[in-house]
Amino acid sequence: ELDTTFQSQILPSIVLFSAVDDAAIYREESKKDILDEEAQERRESALLARVGKFLPALQVASNGTARLRRLVKNMVVQLGAVQTPSAVPFYYDEDEEGGSINEDDGMSTSVMNTRASATHNGANNGAKRGESMQSPVFGPGVPMFRLGKAISIALRILVAVDASVSSNVDLQEAWAMYKDVVMEWSEQKRTDNTLDSEFESFERMMVQLDFNLLSSRSFVTAIEQNFDPRGRFQCAKFPLYDEIKSILVTLYGQYCERINTEEETATERLDCVGMYAMYVLYRHLLPPNIVPDAKLHKSLWSVFPVMCPVMELYGPLYFIPREFMMSYAPYKAVKGCSADIPDIRSGAAAMVIKWNGSFKARVAKIRLDTLRWIAMADSDLSPTVPESHSRTRNEHDDEDMHVNSLASSVASIEAATSTILQGMKIAHSASILLHSQLAAHRALRLNYDADHIPSLMSLMEVLKSIEKLLIVRRRSAVLSFQRSTLKMIASNTLKKFDKVRSFVDQCSSSTDFSRNSERARSITRLSACLTALEGVLKGTASFSCIRRHSIAFSIAACMDTMILEVFSTDDLLAVEGYLKDLSQISSIEETLKQVCDCSFLYFYRDLFPECVSRLYQSNLNSAVSHTQLVLTAFSDPERILKQVRHIDRDVQTGVTPCFIGYRNFVLSHLKEEYVGPICQMIETDLRLATSGAKGVHSRLRKLIISTPLYVCQTKLDVKSEVEKYLERTFYDLCTLNLNDCNTYTEMRSIANERYGLNLADPYLPDGSLDQGVDFMDILRDLDSFIAQYNYNLIEQSFVERRPERGAKYLNTMNIKCLSASFKQHGLGVVSSAVNVCYKLLARKFQLLTEFFADDNMNSLLSREFRWFDNQKNVGNNTYPFARASIFSQEVKKLEVDSGNNALDECRIIISEIGNVIALGRMIRAAKRSVFSDELPFLPSYAIPADASEGPQSKPNAKSGLHDAISAILTKQDPDFVRAFVNVFRGVIQKSQSDNSFMGSFFCIVPALCLCWMEASIQGKEMMHKKNITRDGYYTDDGFAVGLAFSLSVLDQTKTYESLNWFKSIQSKYAADEEDLMEKKKAQQVKRNAKISASKQNAWFTSNTEDNTQEEDAEMTILHMMGKRLEGNRREMAMLFFSMHGARAFFKDIRSK
Length: 1152
Known about the structure:
Elements: H1 2-15, H2 26-32, H3 37-83, H4 109-116, H5 118-124, H6 126-132, H7 145-166, H8 169-192, H9 197-212, H10 218-223, H11 232-235, H12 240-258, H13 268-285, H14 294-302, H15 304-307, E1 311-314, E2 317-319, H16 321-328, H17 341-356, H18 359-380, H19 395-443, H20 453-473, H21 475-496, H22 498-509, H23 518-537, H24 545-558, H25 569-586, H26 588-595, H27 608-621, H28 627-635, H29 638-641, H30 657-690, H31 700-705, E3 709-711, E4 714-716, H32 718-736, H33 741-755, H34 775-780, H35 782-788, E5 789-792, E6 797-800, E7 812-814, H36 815-825, H37 829-852, H38 855-874, H39 881-892, H40 902-934, H41 945-949, H42 957-969, H43 976-990, H44 1005-1023, H45 1038-1049, H46 1053-1057, H47 1061-1096, H48 1101-1143
Antiparallel strand pairs: 1-2, 3-4, 5-6, 6-7
């Protein structure tokens, strides 16, 4: 019980005095600048405040060590008293004056006085001893191994306490400063004559703490006590050191035999530490004239240190056996059993490095045994359903069935108990290997091998999986089998003593039984011990630690030479096995909690980041995840962090800042090393999915949909963390570039479909990188866009006319770009865009009217109009190509302010008008595209009656939603192009007298077509040149749309058709083609004739070859003329087709 108290309360509080927490900032500041006086003052004040709050914990530790010292003395005296009962009084001693002896541990004066008078007291009290001595409780030859083990445990605890105090630098420094402060305060009080009793009591407490605890001499003080204050053992000539030595040799041999075997538990190595402490006690008890046992010293030097060179006492406290022996019990006379501390540590490091080679193999074996055991335990400890039996059965069947069921139940209990004990053995092996590996590397300052990290995590998984199975999942079955097994063991133990009971009863009833004889007293003692044993074993299935010790005490008291007739050595070994099983099974839960406890990982928390990183890698490459088991192991330090009493706790939660700091440390590294890579890989996978590439990893979904992780009383949901990361990332990147919002919208959809992530919409204006130029940027400078882009009627797009210098591509804008911009900025921009287009169209049309209002231009158009009117009267309804060519040359002679000729200026204005009209048409198409994308979400929406009637007087969100949906489902989309035509036509008709010169507009259309054809051919030729000196483009359908719009507004479409310009062009090109074919035929005939003549006149071949070359050059010229003719015909055909398509925009518009 004391061991448990020290391990769970006192040692943690001392070790964690300088624990890192949120308030311990002074440690970091001291490392930054040691010479900084302010930092040092803050550090010293913090240390003083901390040690002041730590005084209650120090008092508890001091009282505990004082009690341990008294227990050591008491148990050593009992050890001698059992063997020499005549040397010890019945209850207590009284000195000659009648007062009780003061057994103060710290005072040596009384010890010296009692030693000096030991012989005299023994002589004077000789007569008294004979009357008051008790008879021995145990028979001769009964060794006190349990008592010796208890002494070793007490000494080992004192060694651990001394190590915890001496290794805590902060505690030593803080205590020294605190003593100085108290001394100064005491001197001041004595100077001022204000010293009171409370302060004197406080000073005495400080002296006791300093002497008993903080001087790190608790162990030395315990072994230097006087264990024979009155010289009784000396008078009886009893060598107490021999008894200590015999117990030490026996227990040390038993412990070393079990170390590194399957039977080893977590206590053998700690018990060996107690053996070394008992050896120091043995050396102290040896008289000066007796030489220590060299064989025992050599065994202690060579056996256990080879198997365990470094032992963990508690957390960061380590025990090196050879170093301990050199410090407390050196024996240089024994050859090979002495060395310097550096040599001892280097030898231990060499052994640890040697064992590292087999570490992974040992862990793999334990892991394999654990997997096999879990499968077996899950089956053996699972709830069973009783079998159903037939209703008709006879008595013999009932008896056989009862026997069979009893046998099967006993067999199942034995099998289940064996399974539980096997699991505990595996847990012991894993715990020992994990503790020894970590402690050895940390104590000897060896670096951990990176390849051993997965093996260390496997050991943690083994411990936590066994703990979870036996204490959580199958706890009810374990408790049920535990009760049944304990009853069976108790029953079997009593059966072994049935013969002894019969023998005692027979002896008691015999005729020669004399109550005054020695045999009668032994029989009476045996009967009483058997009765006590029966009373302890019967009546309950709960066997506490005290009850188990009572059973062992009763059995030991029953051992006597007179029962050897009926109680053999085999029976004794069987009883010893029963006691061992009884001890194991009755403390299953406590042992499992102690063995599987990973609180010590707090002192190895620097391994946590690497462990988490390896967990992430293993989860990616494995179908089974053990993350929660490892995190549960690293959550165990909560148990010891609760024992930090010198730091104020949180009022609401009750946790210490030390635990809060550790929890923040664990969570931060878990998010950084585990959740962070998952978030990054999922983001990468989503980006690859949006681009059509292959995903990153197939097991990412498993990591997300797995159950939440629990660590340090905190729930960590990987799915929620990934959602938060993606939402934050998507929002930040969308705010940087709104044109990329559609990409992240698609990524959110893929994340929901592939990983089940529900990402919130950031409600930002969505955009897309595929939409090209943002439409809002175009509206801000629409005039420049109309002038720099050409319209493509077939693709419904605008193409950049001349790219910037160094550009490798042409910017485009299509309906998809417009719809993306509308989705990004909302459909409210449509009306603004149409208004901007209307204003620009009005300006361009005003420029066109001003151009035709020029006198020179007006006179030329009037002349053409009169000529065509005369031709119509004659009956010629076709406008000739030659006339158009001459007219275009005349118009080109006119100059305008821009520097272009008049015909090119008119063509450019009409093209820009067409571009504006085409843009308006694309705006309408983009709006319809947005509506079409929204319609699938409204397949069965019923518009309320009140919403269809019209707008309400008090609109609200509900009515606004109905209005928006009604606009999509019922309202007709307005045609902006037709609206433009009607508006401009109305303006022209109202001012017809002022715009009479526009009546002959159709006459300039043929000349404009020829001008457009020349410009289009030049633009396409410029596309193939490296040095672009003018606009290079491959399409310009805005001219056709502008012509159709202008003719429709002026109501001259029919008049233009009366020119039959398309037929004239076809006739002209057909005649030119026939003429060109005739020239090619004539040239071919001429060439053939010259070739035939050259064959006849072979003497004159040189002249003939020259003539042939001339003919070939002429044929080349004719071929080039044919290509040019074909190009002109293709361009004019494309123009007329575009005009025919553009006229469809305004086909049904009638003049009012």
